[in-house]
Amino acid sequence: MNIFLVRHGHSENDRSDFERVLSKKGILEVESLAAKLLEIEQIRPRKIIHSGLYRARETASIIKEKLNLPIELGLSENLCPNSPINFWDTELLKSIEDTMLVGHMPFMGLMAQRLLDSSSGPSFNASFETASLVWITKETESELKFVRYINGL
User: What is the four-CA torsion angle of 41, 104, 128, 149, rounded to 10 degrees?
Assistant: First the structure.
């Protein structure tokens, strides 16, 4: 089972946090990321879950469309910038389907750290750029392994 953590593309700063949309740069970043993902056959999530914030929903929609995935997008309020990461401990670890979570910093960096046990894995808090993906595979029920970091641009 694979877990794909995606940070939304670059967004405009001219609206409230909830209403911020992807900028032109952000759309290009996400389209570029999706094109890279399309070349990797193992990246075909069965579930894509995004935060309720508009820029994350846009990012999830672009990826779904570009990968031609016949799935519905899911929404979770537990993917917002300051959401508690412990909610996903059991949700992701009990899942058997490849799952993509689309969210925000600092949440996505902290989630990657938690899943990979920051003492042994790479650090993503400072370098989880917009329109980027962290690919993690679940080897066993309790063993997760870093596979790859993919940047949109």
Answer: -10
Contacts of 91 (CB under 8 A, 6+ apart): none
Q: Which residues pair with 147 in a beta bridge?
A: none
Instruction: Annotate 127-147 with b (16+ C-beta within 10 A) or e (fewer).
Output: ebbbbbbbbbebeeeeebebe
pTM of the model: 0.92
CB 102 within 8 A of CB 45: no
Amino acid at 109: G
Q: In this structure, are strands 73-75 and 2-7 parallel, antiparallel, or unpaired?
A: unpaired
- Identity of the amino acid at 148: R
Domains and CATH numbers, the chain: 2-151 (3.40.50.1240)
Digitized pLDDT (tens) for each residue of the chain, 153 residues in all: 999 999 999 998 888 877 899 999 999 999 999 999 999 999 999 999 999 999 999 999 999 999 999 999 999 999 998 898 888 877 777 788 999 999 999 899 888 888 887 545 566 655 789 999 999 998 877 788 899 999 998
